[in-house]
Design brief:
11 helices; mainly alpha
Length: 251
């Protein structure tokens, strides 16, 4: 009876995630070798794993900034472009009613990246800019999620994401090269973002079938891979030509 109770609970949970066909294969026919259902199950597991992981993926970066009280080596323009891409993904996915497992990380990444932008601005002594940014970001998100933005505009924004994502990463890559250092970039955060973007290629194919979304994650994976390589290459290399801001100086 206890075992049956556990099975019933698992089935109840699975019914909220898997299609009826797979529920029948797994719980009625005990067929755990169905290829299509396995791909769906794997996609869902990876998708929700990415969402859970994204809730803390940028925490190491936030802690590193807080610990150093410095935003040295962090490109704000790169972060702004990244925020555009994240916000677009969120609005586009909600508009097309993609499953939460296909886009849920965008919500957490938006919050975490916004915190990083505010921290970098404040550590550079630009408190007013930080407040202005927050008000602007909240307004843009509210507008995009209000349903007032035409679907055609959302499609154009999504299509532009590949260029925006590539630009945001290239700016940081160039910044690293110029400084001969990755500055305050967190190796753990960059590594997790790379792993997540690679996994998202598979889950996007399975759950959305949207070519624009898939291509965006392919581009993101390539760029994140280069950032990972830079972190390894510059691991023990001291920064050169690093810009020092007033708030970045140690007291």
């Amino acid at each position: 009876m206890a075992v049956q109770g556990v099975v019933d609970q698992v089935r109840h949970l699975a019914e909220h995630i898997l299609p009826a066909l797979c529920i029948a294969e797994y719980f009625e026919k005990s067929n755990f070798l169905d290829a299509n259902c396995f791909k769906i199950l794997l996609s869902k597991a990876l998708g929700y794993g990415i969402v859970v992981g994204s809730s803390i993926v940028k925490v190491p970066q936030i802690l590193k900034l807080y610990g150093s009280k410095s935003g040295a080596g962090i490109s704000l323009f790169s972060l702004y472009l990244e925020l555009f891409a994240i916000t677009t993904t969120l609005a586009y996915s909600l508009n097309y009613k993609f499953p939460f497992s296909a886009w849920g990380e965008s919500l957490f990444l938006l919050l975490e990246t916004a915190i990083i932008v505010v921290m970098v601005l404040m550590y550079r002594g630009k408190n007013l800019h930080a407040i202005t940014y927050l008000v602007t970001q909240i307004s843009i998100v509210a507008l995009l999620l209000s349903g007032l933005v035409p679907e055609k505009v959302l499609k154009i924004m999504q299509a532009s994401q590949m260029v925006v994502v590539l630009m945001s990463k290239l700016i940081q890559i160039v910044e690293n090269k110029k400084n001969n250092s990755t500055g305050q970039l967190s190796a753990l955060t960059v590594g997790l973002l790379f792993a997540g973007s690679v996994a998202r290629i598979f889950t996007s194919v399975q759950e959305t079938g949207d070519a624009l979304v898939v291509l965006t994650y392919i581009v993101s994976s390539l760029a994140n891979g280069i950032l990972c390589a830079q972190i390894i290459y510059y691991w023990n290399t001291p920064a050169k030509g690093k810009k020092v801001y007033k708030k970045d100086k140690k007291q």
